Amino acid sequence: MTTLPLTTEPLTLLVTGGAGYIGAHTCVALQQAGYRLVVLDNYCNSRPQTLQSIERITGQPVIAVEGDVRDRALLDRILREHAISGVIHFAGLKAVGESAEKPLDYYANNVAGSLVLLQAMQAAGVKTLVFSSSATVYGTPQFLPYTEAHPLAPVNPYGRTKLMVEDMLRDLHASDPAWRIGILRYFNPVGAHQSGLIGEDPQGIPNNLMPFIAQVAAGRRAFVNVWGNDYDTPDGTGVRDYIHVSDLAAGHVKALQHLQQAPACLALNLGSGQGHSVLEVIRAFEQASGRPIPYQFAPRRAGDLPAFWADATPAERVLGWKAGCSLLQMCEDTWRFQSRAGALA
Ligand code: NAD
Ligand code: WQD
To answer: What residue owns the CA closest to ligand 2's atom 25?
Structure first.
């Protein structure tokens, strides 16, 4: 008697914002874990070429759909035509300063976008979602490290859009416990894929520390402004929980696999559990790049918190996931991507 091999069709996922920084790295990890992907992106903060880089890394095709996550008819079509079984939702705007200048853009994109997506998923019977939340939802630390039980009190419009979507997801799960929802609260994602093919390449002056330092190392900017050296931290500069974007990507795969076991609504921190100061990051980048990083101290940046980092133990306990990359690796991979991007420019 011959037995036929059991063939299980790979599951197809919709990745909104999959051409963006975290989305692209997660697409790589998802494809390497055996999922088929449809990426929906309007490229408002990314480029379609990134999808080719993903395909080059994994050797797997990405089905690309250009469009907006608020386009209900488009979502209905994608969910139906591609037999989508779950959604990883990255699409949104993410600049804290801009969210105070243009709050309605942030509510429209982040909140209304998520609402339209959830309505389309509900209508199609697709009930698995992983959502990009942020440590920003915690606001001013009442205690550190932030645990998932820390009060949620964001201090800027961007953070409030993330909290509103989290609340929407908790209400949805309470109304229908068949939903499988992973709310992942990212800390400070940095670094790039080891290949140097994908990474963070912000347009204009970078808001965030790591891309700014990388541009100084590359000679595109003269020095780093260190925003504040009088905080109550070991060296006076701000302390954050930096996490390698590839570790973060792996966390999404683990979250999805966990949700496939049983319905749930989980909120988990994805951080390294360790804080590093601005000066530590500058020194690590000097070591990684072999170049000096000139810096000068400047006044505190409005709205900045002195220090925060994650309690990362629940993610380890629940998902079996832990960030593995050191700060030096984060800087080395950023530098490899930056050097390559510079060479191609
Ligand atoms: P990103 O800007 O690189 O990626 C977002 C992607 O979504 C981009 O490709 C953009 O073109 C796309 N997009 C935006 N609005 C869209 C819309 N309406 N329709 C379709 N596509 C749209 O940002 P990222 O750093 O990769 O962040 C991804 C997600 O993670 C965001 O939701 C962000 O708020 C969240 N997050 C990011 C950080 C961080 O520091 N990078 C930290 C915490 C949470
Ligand atoms: C890190 C540290 C700065 C730039 C932001 C968002 C947060 C999340 C991640 C989305 C701070 C200092 C920075 C510079 C500096 N995004 N710094 N000189 O502010 O922790 O978090 O990105 O969810 O919501 O607020 O990250 O990289 O901007 O700053 O000294 O040129 O570096 O003061 O201490 P932040 P960051």
So the answer is: 96
**3-class SS of residue 307:** strand
If DSSP codes are grouped into helix, strand and coil, which group holds residue 18? coil
Q: Whose CA is nearest to atom 16 of ligand 2?
A: 94
Helix, strand, coil share of the chain (percent; to 5): 40, 20, 40
CA quadruple 263, 264, 268, 270: dihedral, nearest 10: 10
Identify whether 186 is a catalytic site residue.
no
- Atom of ligand 2 minimally distant from the CA of 278: 32
Q: Which residues contact 13 (CB under 8 A, 6 or more apart)?
A: 30, 35, 36, 37, 38, 84, 85, 86, 87, 88, 256
For position 6, what pLDDT does the model report? 53
The pTM (predicted TM-score) of the whole model is: 0.97
Q: Is 301 left (phi over 0), alpha (psi -120 to 50) or beta?
A: beta
Domains of the chain, residue spans: 12-190+242-271
CA of 297, nearest ligand number? 2
Computed over its alpha carbons, how large is the radius of gyration of the chain?
Answer: 20
pLDDT along the chain (345 residues), means of 10: 56 98 98 98 97 98 98 98 98 97 98 99 98 98 98 98 98 98 98 97 92 97 98 98 98 98 98 98 98 98 96 98 98 96 62
Q: Which protein residue has the closest C-alpha to ligand 2 atom 28? A: 208
Does the 12-190+242-271 domain belong in CATH 3.30.70.20?
no
Q: Are strands 63-66 and 36-41 parallel, antiparallel or unpaired?
A: parallel
Ligand nearest to the CA of 114: 1
